[in-house]
Specification:
heterodimer, A: alpha+beta, Butyryl-Coa Dehydrogenase, subunit A, domain 1, Butyryl-CoA Dehydrogenase, subunit A, domain 2, Butyryl-CoA Dehydrogenase, subunit A, domain 3, 3 domains, four-stranded mixed sheet, about 15% strand, B: alpha+beta, four-stranded antiparallel sheet
């Protein structure tokens, strides 16, 4: 435990810039074709199977994975560039994003070889959607209080209970879920949970929609009623998921998606202010720019340190803590900075539509993928306070 | 208590050892007078640190910009109350114009974006510069002045200038310096504009601020793990943990963004759009971190941190004062905002992503 924080000065290497141009060209073509509208986040189909296949065909899913599983053995910094360009363009990537960021790496580490050979290449082709099954109606941030059960039976496991806030479950092909296989012990309350690969098309699994305050349908309740999975769907150690679930978190927490979720309102702000903003607007825009630059430099640095085999757990958690709070406040700051603009500014309709959407989305940003409070607990532990 | 951060820079390690031996904040805080200053400066001079940014042929030790920034990070971790950063910058400015540097402490003027010193046809300097750090302790001042044929770098003796008796809240000299027909000891055409000097100064202050914040975080966590209240160490309270996590966030931002700006200047050594973007962003965000970070640290320490006896104020008052040097965060935010607005929305993301 130490209070020393490190940010290596990582600059993206030249191959990343060539890749960036390629990604921008691809996105420009897709926008021209009408696949999505970069100015209207939250509209259209966010799970676009055909679009994900085209992204897969470009080699931009599973970029860092071994070639024998359909991956491309490229660097985490190259993946970083692809992720940030897609995010800034508001391109619909929900279909493959969870599989690419989280589920694939877990399978790579813990799934048996024949499962890897079967599933990973299909993720890379953009054919598969994954859902994360962690939270339950009675347990959210307190992950290790999970009750949904996996019971050993002849040739496999039977699943009962329910998972909640499961984004993508209504379209997902597979879930990676956390299930209770033994009671917790006195010494270790995290003991007794096991990770499984769940085929969402199996009998005994029901997906019930839960509509969000934005009007969108993203998350769901997934109910397991004696669903069966064969033995080879077990991932890693029985009762030992607590050792596995935390290892990928630095990747999950420090990416560009952790501060760019409402980025579009910043572009619309710049359009609204025009080339000669007044002093108040200029200062506000300058501060937002400095804050964004600082977040991105931290995030790139964490990606580079991960690539170099380091474990910047605290630094990664800090990126998410600061990044999500920034993107949450951003629509409110933009609203303040545009408060005195003339009624006839050209992009008022777009600005107002985007602000309305971003403002409604904002509350979830500091909750999903680890709440602010949980992150700060992790940071405090890293500092040596726990 | 002071954490001397790991460093790839041997020069910075030498500096940190000198600071630990001769400028330990606790010892300096208890000192009845300024007797610690002379041995410290002598040791720094013997190690070639004050003129680290001056090449050998101009009287310095010819260290890299990166090494100098690493030294300044270490100086921040000790809340160094000596004109090391100022002498480094003065030497750097003089050598950019090909002028040799004298021995002894120096400072640099102007230190505010709107202050202007002019070089008249008769070769004398006129004007007033506010907030010149350590001017009262310096033997010489390196001045960036406006001449008839463009910017000029001039070296003047401090005794030829008129100073007020200003001090920062930390007690360091910080003077308004009046140049009333002051004859420079030497001068030469400057290869850079006032904005470049402000960007360099801003990066220096950002690096110092990040160093001070690192020390403040280490001190605050150590204190929270030691101090008992309500029969528990206060670091066990979630409210305190959340505050310290926020402090760590501000420290992290300051380290990352100041390191990025210093790296940009050290790699490029030119004041183009990239340097402007990096240096202004660093100054803005490090000043914000100083504001947030010092408030949190004082909250953790409670009344004890508000005493003269405790060293916390040595760090917090300095980092708060540094916000005002070489363009404050509001000034640079307006400048950066205008820069972004002129280029327009379509150029914004490419500008951010290029860094």
């Amino acid at each position: 435990m130490s209070t020393a924080l490190h940010f290596d000065q990582i600059r993206l290497p030249p191959e990343c810039e060539a890749l960036r141009r390629e990604v921008r060209d691809f996105l420009a073509e897709e926008i021209a074709k009408g696949t999505f509208d970069p100015h209207r986040p939250g509209h259209g189909d966010s799970h676009d199977r055909a679009f994900s296949r085209r992204i897969g065909a470009k080699g931009w899913i599973g970029m860092t994975w071994p070639k024998k599983y359909g991956g491309h053995e490229r660097s985490f910094l190259e993946r970083y560039v692809v992720t940030e360009e897609f995010r800034v363009a508001n391109a619909p990537v929900r279909l493959h994003f969870v599989a690419d960021r989280q589920s694939g790496p877990i399978l790579l580490k813990y799934a048996p070889e024949h499962i890897k050979m079967n599933i990973l290449p299909r993720i890379c082709r953009g054919e598969l959607c994954f859902v994360i099954g962690m939270s339950e109606p009675g347990s959210g941030s307190d992950l290790f209080a999970a009750k949904a059960k996996a019971t050993k039976v002849e040739g496999g496991w039977r699943f009962n209970g329910s998972k909640i806030w499961t984004s993508n479950a209504h379209v997902a092909d597979y879930m990676i879920g956390l299930f209770r296989t033994s009671p917790p012990t006195k010494e270790n309350r995290r003991h007794g949970l096991t990770q499984f690969l769940i085929d969402m098309k199996a009998p005994g699994i029901t997906v019930n929609p839960i509509y969000q305050m934005t009007g969108q349908h993203d998350f769901n309740e997934v109910v397991f009623d004696d669903a069966f999975m064969p033995d080879d769907h077990l991932l890693g150690e029985i009762d030992g998921a607590w050792k596995q679930a935390t290892s990928e978190l630095a990747y999950e927490r420090s990416g560009p998606e952790r501060f760019l979720e409402t980025f579009y309102v910043m572009l619309e702000l710049i359009r609204a202010l025009g080339p000669e903003p007044d002093l108040r607007s200029a200062e506000g825009l300058g501060r937002l720019t400095a804050q964004l630059h600082a977040l991105r430099r931290m995030s790139v640095s964490v990606a580079g340190m991960l690539q170099a085999g380091k474990e910047p757990v605290v630094e990664g958690s800090i990126v998410k803590d600061l990044g999500t709070i920034w993107e949450q406040k951003l629509p409110h700051r933009v609203r303040e900075l545009t408060a005195f603009l003339a009624p006839e500014i050209g992009n008022r309709a777009t600005l107002e539509e985007q602000l309305a959407f971003a403002t409604t989305v904002a509350p979830k940003l500091t909750i999903q993928g680890g709440t602010t409070e949980i992150l700060r607990g992790i940071i405090a532990r890293g500092l040596g306070l726990r | 208590m002071i954490v001397t951060g790991e460093s790839d820079h041997i020069v910075a390690e030498v500096a940190a050892r000198i600071f630990a031996d001769l400028a330990d904040p606790q010892t300096v805080n208890r000192a009845a007078d300024g007797a610690w200053k002379q041995p410290l400066w002598r040791a720094l001079a013997e190690a070639g640190l004050p003129l680290a940014w001056v090449p050998d042929n101009l009287g310095g030790s010819g260290a890299s910009l990166a090494d100098g920034f690493a030294v300044l990070g270490a100086a921040g971790r000790f809340a160094l109350a000596a004109p090391l950063a100022e002498t480094l910058m003065a030497g750097w400015l003089l050598s950019r114009a090909g002028l040799p540097s004298p021995a002894g402490a120096m400072t640099i003027a102007p230190a505010r974006p709107l202050d202007r010193i002019t070089l008249a046809a008769d070769g004398t300097l006129a004007g007033r510069a506010l907030g010149i750090a350590f001017a009262a302790d310096a033997e010489h001042i390196a001045v960036l002045a406006d001449g008839a044929k463009g910017a000029v770098v001039a070296l003047v003796a401090r005794k030829d200038c008129r100073l007020d008796d200003g001090k920062t809240p930390a007690g360091d000299p910080c003077n308004a310096v009046s140049f009333d027909r002051v004859k420079p000891l030497r001068s030469a055409a400057a290869p850079l504009e006032r904005t470049a000097l402000m960007l360099m100064g801003s990066t220096v202050r950002s690096v110092q601020t990040a160093g001070a914040l690192e020390a403040v975080l280490a001190m605050s966590v150590a204190y929270a793990n030691d101090r008992v209240a309500f029969e528990r160490r206060i670091g066990k309270f979630q409210a305190v943990q959340q505050n310290l996590a926020r402090l760590a966030g501000e420290v992290a931002v300051a380290l990352a963004v100041s390191g990025s700006a210093a790296d940009t200047l050290a790699q490029g050594d030119r004041f183009d759009d990239a340097a402007f973007f990096e240096a202004t962003a660093a100054k803005i965000r490090c000043a914000e971190a100083a504001t947030e970070g010092s408030a949190i640290a004082h909250q953790v320490f409670g009344a004890i941190g508000f005493t003269k006896e405790h060293v916390l104020h040595r760090f917090t008052t300095r980092m708060l004062a540094w916000r005002d040097d070489f363009g404050n965060e509001s000034w640079w935010a307006a400048e950066l905002g205008r820069h972004v607005a002129r280029r327009g929305a379509d150029e914004f993301w490419p500008m951010v992503a290029a860094r």
